Amino acid sequence: MRRRTLWINLGIGALIVVIFALIVGSLRSGEQPTEDRTVTVTRGDLRSTVTASGTVARAGVVELGFATPGTVTSVDVQAGDSVVAGQVLATVDDTAALQQLAAAESSLAQAVQSAASTDASVASASAALADARRVAEQTNKRNKLAVDQARESLSAAENLWSESCLDPNNPSCPNPSAQAQLRAAEASIDSSQRALDTAVENAANNAVGYDIAVNQAGEVLTQRQNQENSACEGVGSGTATCTSAQTATVTARQTYDNAVRGRTTGLLVDQQSQQTASLNLASANVALQRTQAELRKAGSDAVRSSRQALESAEGLFEQGKIAGEQSIRSAQSALQSALAAEQTVEIPGGEEVTAAQAAIAAAETGVTAAQAALDDTRLIAPVSGTVGQVPYVVGELATSTATSGGITVIPDGPLEVVADFAESDAAGIAVGAEATVTFDALAGEQAKGNVIAIDPVATTSSSGLITYSVRVQVIDPPDAVREGMTASVSVLINEVADALIVPQGAITGSGDQASVLLQRPDGTSEATRITIGLQGDGGTEVTGGLQEGDVLVIPSADDLSFPEGGVPGSGRDDDPDGPFGGGGD
């Protein structure tokens, strides 16, 4: 009976196995084959960045407000105006402040007068100290004025001379007198040259005239000699005709001799005229060179003399300061000696001074406070920049900055973006890191940037999110960028050059358990363990296990749920860890 029951149970079990196999077979036969998605391992540069949003602002915005309330009497700027350091922006009624200052100064004068009447020696010493200070101040002003004048004289001397002044036709010469002298010297050269040219031309013309006169006289002499020979031949020399012919010949010879002597004398005179004109031209050239040298020396001498005068004035200024300081110290010592002889009182802080000194000190403190209150009636720009908000209106009561904002001045300087990064992202950011800034209101516009500061103190939101503020200076921002715009900042935290890059979707697991499906030449794939490096914005760096050009199969849902080797946990003896090295658990 038992054996029969056993066979019945075995039959039922076998039937169940067959039915299950048929069901599984039918399900598998109904599945449609899927085409594997693949990617290729590439090589390139990989960057890793972190991103956060922030607001564009100028660094160091200054807010100025009146220390005490008062009626606004003037508002000299409006939003958008450019201001310079020291410029008055707004004022409130200073009547009360002036009255307080006058009263404080009156109290000081009374305290000084009381001290003087109490102790003449102290008054005398104080007067001596005041005189020493006044004399030192006047001496310093006088010597400083002399230094300024000497500096101006040196500048004038340096500006009055230039090598361009050696050219009388150079319009850049700053010294008209020098150019006038050079033009006069060149005019003398031109005149001498014309005189020489005239002398040479006259000598040439005269030589021709001399030759013509000699030739004409020679021809006349020849004619007279021929006539004499004809008249005296055969008849003797005693006849009247012969005598007359002889006289004419003598006269012609004298005329010829005179022409020869005139030519000789004229040539000599003309030669002397040319030599004289040539000497005059040489003298004019020498005079021009001498004038140029004298002008150059005069310019150099003027600069050197002015520089020496400046050095002397500066020396006197320093000596005067030292002498004044010594005089003041001496007067202060005398005053301290006089005060030491008086009865002292103890003031708050344990210091002992005379009653007169205490009164004067108290009065001086009052004057200082009153002067500060008067100064507080004016808002003065501490830096140059652009005015932001202007909340004041003439005639209205200006409240203190503690209750309402004052005038803001945006300093001239680079734009910054302050962005809050999550603590995990902020941990990788370093000062000096490169950044890319984009602007929500300016599509397609971006600018480079550098991290200039990281807030060392974290901020915790109401939801418990911990962030750190990071300041990024924007380099060459687009013209349309304005303060207050929303910006997105991407900060570079790491980068690798010439890396093997695999898309993150092709990697299964992480750390030491990272694997990929490497496609075989026959189209099948096998699980391959890899070593990963930087996880960047455009993929993951692979440092071991793959080569450039390898083809990877991106795992499907089935690959992740039922990898090759069976259902996870099946415990195959040939691959107990599973194809992805993670075991079958």
Topology, please?
Elements: H1 2-30, E1 38-40, E2 42-58, E3 62-64, E4 70-75, E5 82-83, E6 88-92, H2 95-118, H3 120-160, H4 176-232, H5 240-340, E7 344-346, E8 352-354, H6 355-375, E9 378-380, E10 385-387, E11 397-398, E12 407-411, E13 415-422, H7 423-426, E14 434-439, E15 442-454, E16 459-460, E17 466-475, E18 486-502, E19 515-519, E20 525-529, E21 531-536, E22 539-544, E23 551-553, H8 557-561
Antiparallel strand pairs: 1-23, 2-13, 2-18, 3-12, 4-6, 4-11, 5-10, 6-9, 7-8, 10-12, 13-17, 14-15, 14-18, 15-17, 16-17, 18-22, 19-20, 19-23, 21-22
Short structural summary:
With 585 residues, the chain is of the alpha+beta class.
Structural class determined from secondary elements: alpha+beta
Number of strands: 23
* CATH fold node name of the domain at 164-333: Helix Hairpins
CATH structural class of the domain at 164-333: Mainly Alpha
Please outline the major beta sheet: 6 strands, antiparallel, barrel
Average pLDDT: 81
> Termini distance?
44 Å
Under the CATH scheme, which architecture of the domain at 164-333 would be assigned? Orthogonal Bundle
User: What strand order characterises the main sheet?
Assistant: 2-13-17-15-14-18
Radius of gyration from CA coordinates: 56 Å
Task: Name the beta content range.
Answer: 15-25%
Count of DSSP-assigned helices: 8
User: Given the C-alpha coordinates, what overall shape results?
Assistant: flat
Low-confidence regions:
1-7, 24-34, 560-585
Helicity, as a percent range: 40-55%
